């Protein structure tokens, strides 16, 4: 199944379906292992009243026994191109909402919609549509991945549509997003790259270094100019060399950089992930999906922008040359793999999937951790780290399965 590249629509509010356990009633989850920002509490409790977490429970609160389960914050995905058969770059509004809902079913309660390389007129049109969805609260903002990337490291982007990051073009995308642009990935070594980084920083948009062929020295220069994120570290950039350390070394060693990692077992060897955590720590790592249409949907043929993709056994590759084309990852799988395969602590995995990306987006006052006053975005996991409940803004997206 392929997304319709020409589909358009008008933004509307996504429907919500409250679970009866919380429809109009405060809720208390009790008996669970609760992962808090500063500690892990066994036999803990979380109180939800309306859309928020509260410190005290009203007398009429409904109690849900979550013994034997974890309660953790909802996941925050900085980099996501679609899911459920829908593309955020080319799908209609209904399809985009379907893709958002697909990822919510897998625990992503906050999502930034990513676009792929296209011509400037098309991208500005998409930015306008996506900005409406951001204004309605369906997404947390827009991430532009391309067209300002290196043809040497283009990955699954159309080379014919790539261009240098001239600040005037970057400004067009910022303006089209109407204040909802959160991040833009660019190869900062290209002409105009450093000036564009400065422009992005001035407008409060994250400048992310990615799909780059930069040297170590050029990457340091970009960080000094204001870049703060490494787009899917290790992927689509020169490998680390002992005489030519390249961008990976510069990005890992600098405390100003948050590194994205795609933890699907395909994009990264476990040792590479361990290397990143050893040097950056959970406070500087954000697990992302880089998901395309097939996430949560299945194998088959799809479109990623103008390029055809074949998904087989859950791995997406361009049909023309076999290049890996995004992922079919969902963040519940990334979390479970982090703990059960990569050996990370539950606390570090929660930080990388919730707190770190929330802070990077400037949303740490409302999401990313379980604290009174923040939105009731939370997940229930069983002892095997399987997802058993998803709550967003106090309403069950996936009702508790605690039997």
Please sum up the structure shown.
By secondary structure, the protein is an alpha/beta fold.
Write the layout of secondary structure elements.
Blueprint: E1 27-35, E2 40-49, E3 52-54, E4 62-65, E5 70-73, E6 75-80, E7 82-83, E8 86-87, H1 93-105, E9 108-115, H2 120-135, E10 142-145, H3 167-176, E11 181-186, H4 193-202, E12 206-209, H5 216-225, E13 229-230, H6 246-253, E14 258-262, H7 270-280, E15 285-288, E16 300-304, E17 307-312, E18 315-318, H8 331-340, H9 346-360, E19 378-381, E20 387-392, E21 395-398
What does this structure look like?
The structure is a single chain. The protein is α/β, with parallel strands linked by helices. It is 26% helix and 25% strand. It has 2 domains: 27-72 and 367-398, Urease, subunit C, domain 1; 74-360, Metal-dependent hydrolases (TIM Barrel, Alpha-Beta Barrel), CATH 3.20.20. The strands form 4 sheets. Strands 1, 2, 3, 4, 5, 19, 20 and 21 form an 8-stranded mixed beta sheet that branches. Mean pLDDT is 92; it is low at 1-23.
